[in-house]
C-alpha cells in the first residue's frame, strides 16, 4: 500500500486522529463486509475503492486540482452534480457517517443534534476528513433546521463555504425559487472557474449523471430477484461510493457488477438464501461508515432489498431530461428533476410514502424498517404517517430511532430479530 | 361567575378535562400572580381577562361570529393581524403553553418534540382549548421543522386548516415569496368573508395593530426604570393577553397601566426592590400558562426587565408603515414589517443577537437568561452563538433548556439562583 503520509500532512489532517479513524474503519469493514459469504466478484472493485478512499482517491482529486479542476464538497443530494460537472468541477460527498471528536462538537452544537450533523462537525474539528480538506468549496443547504442553523457555525470553520437556500414546498413559487438558487450556483461556479457553462457542457454533465443513475437503477431492479444476488450491505456500499468515486469509472463498474448479477440470477445463485425475509429500509441517509442497522438486519438472515434513502433510491432515481437545446431549457429540466426529490423537509410529502409502497411491491419486500436518526425531526415526524399508510396496505413496519453510537446495539438487535420473525 | 357550561358543550369541549385544566390554571395563577406584592392597580383588568379567558372572552368571540365576523386562530407572530382585521375577522392565538393529554399526543408525535407543539396537539386531542374550537380557520405556518411537519398531522384533526409557507432567509427572493404568501392569505380571507379588502380596511387594520404595538412598546420602555414599576411576570402576562383580547380594548388598558407606571416611576415606587438583579429573557416563546421559568427567576428576588421573544418584543416591535395610499403599497409595508421578525428559523439571523444586545443595554439588564424549549433546534442551536457574542461584550448569559413539566424545577432553581448571585 502506498504511503500517503505526506499528502495527509499537506491537507492538514491530524495524523493520530486520522490513523485511529482508519484503523477503526478497516476493522469495521473487515468484520461487516469481508465476512459476508457469496459476494459477487464485482465487489472487489468497491472493496478496493473503500480501502483507498482516503488514499488513492484523494490523490486523484489532488491531481485533478493540479490540472485546474475545482473540487466541490457537499452533504446533500440537492446539490446538482450535473451543474458541477458542467462547470468542469468534481463533486464529492463529505464525511458524516461516524462519531468523532464528540466532546469538541458538543461545545459548539447542542447535545440533541442528529448524529449526521455532529459527525461532520467532528470530522472537521478532529481534522480527519480528507474530502473536506481537499474541497475548494463546501456547499451547505437549507434543508432541515439542524443543518440550516448548524451551517452558521460550520461556515466559520471552513474557508470557502457556500449556502444554498431550498424551498419547503413544491408549489410554483418553490420551483421559481429553486431555479433562482440553481442559477446562482451556476454563477458561483463560473466565477470560481473563470469560464462559462455552455449548452454542450451542461448536456455532458447531465449525460454523465444520468448514466450513473441508470446504472444504480439497474442494480436496484436486480435486487427484486429471489434469492437476492447481492446483499443489502454491498448494495448500500455501492450507493455510498457513488458520492466519492469518479462518476464515469463508477458507472462502468456498477454496470459490470450488474452484468455479473444477471448471470447469477439466471443460475438462481444468491448472496443470501432463497426465501430469506426481505426488508426494505426507509428513512434517513446512511453515510459511510454508518453500517450499523444494515449489518444488524442482515445478521438475522434477512436480506435488505432496497434503500428508500438519499443514499439509495431517493437520491438517485429520476433522470434529468436532456432534450432541450438551450441553457434555460436544460436548467428547467434540472430544476424539475431535483424538485421531485421527496425529502421529508418538504410539506406535504405524499410522494415519499407512495414511493415506499412502490418499492415495497417492486422488490417484493416482506416488511419496511423505518430508520430515523435520533433528533432528525423531519423523518421521525413523517415516520408516523408512513407507518399508518403502509399498515393500511398490510405492509409491516418497524420504526427505529437510533444514532451512531454502539450503545443500543443489543436493543436494536432484539427489535429487528423480533420483526424479522414476524415478517418471514 | 357566569355559567358557561352550555357554551363549552356547544363548542365540543370535554367537561372533565376542561374543568381539570381550569382548576389547575386557577391554582397556578393564584400562587404565581396573586401572591406578588406591589402590583400596579392596572393589573386588575388583566387578572379579570385571565379569569374570563375561557368564559367571557369566548362568549364575545361567539357574539362576533353571530354578527358575521370570522375567528382566525394561529400559533405564530408571522400570521399578519393587520390583514385579518382588514378582512373584518378577529385574530386569536391558540393554546400551546401547558402539557395536556400527553399520552394521546405521543401516539401521533415523536416524544422528542418540543413542548409547545405537543401542547397544542394535547389541547386539541383533550378538547380543552375553546379558542381552537371557536376558530373558523386555523392558520399554521412553515417556520420550524417541528411545526411544519406536525401540521401535516394536525390539519387532519381540525376542519378548516390553512398552511402558510414562509421563507428561511431574508433575501429579495424570500421577500417576493412572503409577499405572495400574504397575498394568498388575503385571497383566502376574502373568499371566507365574501368581501374584498379595501385600502381603508387595510389602513384601519394597520392602525389598530400599530396602536397595540406602540402601547406594548411603551410598557417595555417603562421597565427600564429602577426599581422596575412592574414585575416581569405581570409584563409577560400582558404580552400573552395581547394574543387573546380585543385589540382596541387591550390597547386602552395597556396605555392605562402605562399611565399608572409612569406615576409610580416618578415616585420611585417599584413592583420589585430597587437594585434588584435585572434579568433579560431571550429565546423561545412562553404561551399561557407557561410561567415556569419567569416565576423561578423572580422568586430569587431578581426582576425580569424584558422578553426577547415572540411573546414579547420580537413579536411586537416594528410598526407597519401606513403611508401608502394603495393596496399594493400597504401590502409591501406589511411584508417589510414582518420580514424584520428575527426568528431563529431564519439564516443568517444576526439581527436577533443585535437586538438582544440593544435590549440588554436599554433595560439595564445585568444578565441574559436564554430560554430554550427542549428539542427546539432553531433557538437552541442559535443560543450557542448568542452566548458567544454576548459574552464578548461582557454580558453574562445562562443558557437553559427545559420543557413544560415540573420535574426539573429544583435543578432550574439552583441554576437560576447561582446565576442571579453572579450578576447581582
Automatic annotation (TrEMBL), chains A, B:
Record Pfam families: HGD-D
InterPro entries with a match to the protein in the record: FldB/FldC_alpha/beta, YjiM-like
Transmembrane region(s): none
NCBIfam families, alphabetized: double_cubane
Family: Belongs to the FldB/FldC dehydratase alpha/beta subunit family.
Name of the molecule in the record: Benzoyl-CoA reductase/2-hydroxyglutaryl-CoA dehydratase subunit BcrC/BadD/HgdB
Amino acid at each position: 500500500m502506498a504511503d500517503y503520509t505526506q499528502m495527509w500532512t499537506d491537507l492538514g489532517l491530524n495524523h493520530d486522529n486520522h490513523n485511529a479513524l482508519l484503523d477503526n474503519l478497516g476493522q469495521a469493514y473487515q468484520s461487516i463486509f469481508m465476512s459476508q459469504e457469496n459476494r459477487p466478484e464485482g465487489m472487489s472493485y468497491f472493496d478496493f475503492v473503500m480501502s483507498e478512499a482516503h488514499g488513492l482517491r484523494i490523490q486523484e482529486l489532488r491531481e485533478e486540482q493540479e490540472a485546474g479542476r475545482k473540487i466541490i464538497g457537499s452533504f446533500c443530494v440537492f446539490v446538482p452534480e450535473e451543474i458541477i460537472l458542467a462547470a468542469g468541477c468534481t463533486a464529492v460527498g463529505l464525511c458524516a457517517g461516524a462519531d468523532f471528536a464528540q466532546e469538541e462538537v458538543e461545545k459548539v452544537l447542542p447535545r440533541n443534534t442528529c448524529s449526521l450533523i455532529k459527525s461532520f462537525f467532528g470530522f472537521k474539528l478532529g481534522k480527519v476528513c480528507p474530502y473536506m480538506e481537499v474541497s475548494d468549496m463546501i456547499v451547505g443547504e437549507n434543508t432541515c433546521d439542524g443543518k440550516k442553523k448548524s451551517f452558521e457555525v460550520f461556515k466559520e470553520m471552513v474557508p470557502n463555504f457556500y449556502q444554498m437556500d431550498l424551498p419547503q414546498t413544491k408549489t410554483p413559487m418553490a420551483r421559481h425559487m429553486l431555479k433562482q438558487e440553481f442559477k446562482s450556483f451556476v454563477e458561483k461556479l463560473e466565477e470560481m472557474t473563470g469560464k462559462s457553462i455552455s449548452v454542450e457542457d451542461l448536456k455532458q454533465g447531465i449525460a454523465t449523471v444520468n448514466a450513473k443513475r441508470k446504472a444504480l437503477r439497474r442494480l436496484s431492479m436486480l435486487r427484486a430477484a429471489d434469492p437476492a444476488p447481492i446483499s443489502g450491505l454491498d448494495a448500500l456500499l455501492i450507493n455510498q461510493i457513488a458520492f466519492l468515486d469518479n462518476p464515469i469509472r463508477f458507472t462502468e463498474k456498477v454496470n459490470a457488477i450488474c452484468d455479473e448479477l444477471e448471470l447469477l440470477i439466471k443460475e438462481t445463485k444468491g448472496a443470501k438464501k432463497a426465501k430469506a425475509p426481505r426488508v426494505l429500509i426507509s428513512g434517513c441517509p446512511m453515510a459511510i461508515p454508518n453500517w450499523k442497522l444494515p449489518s444488524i438486519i442482515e445478521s438475522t438472515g434477512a436480506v435488505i432489498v432496497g434503500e428508500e434513502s438519499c443514499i439509495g433510491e431517493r437520491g438517485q432515481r429520476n433522470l434529468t431530461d436532456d432534450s432541450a437545446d438551450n441553457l434555460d431549457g436544460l436548467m428547467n429540466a434540472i430544476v424539475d428533476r431535483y424538485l421531485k426529490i421527496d425529502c421529508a423537509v418538504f410539506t406535504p410529502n405524499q410522494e415519499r410514502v407512495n414511493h415506499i409502497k412502490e418499492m415495497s411491491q417492486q422488490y417484493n419486500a416482506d416488511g419496511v424498517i423505518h430508520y430515523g436518526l435520533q433528533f432528525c425531526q423531519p423523518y421521525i415526524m413523517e415516520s408516523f404517517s408512513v407507518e399508518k399508510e403502509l399498515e393500511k396496505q398490510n405492509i409491516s413496519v418497524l420504526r427505529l430511532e437510533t444514532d451512531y453510537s454502539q450503545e443500543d446495539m443489543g436493543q436494536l438487535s432484539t427489535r429487528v430479530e423480533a420483526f424479522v420473525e414476524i415478517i418471514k
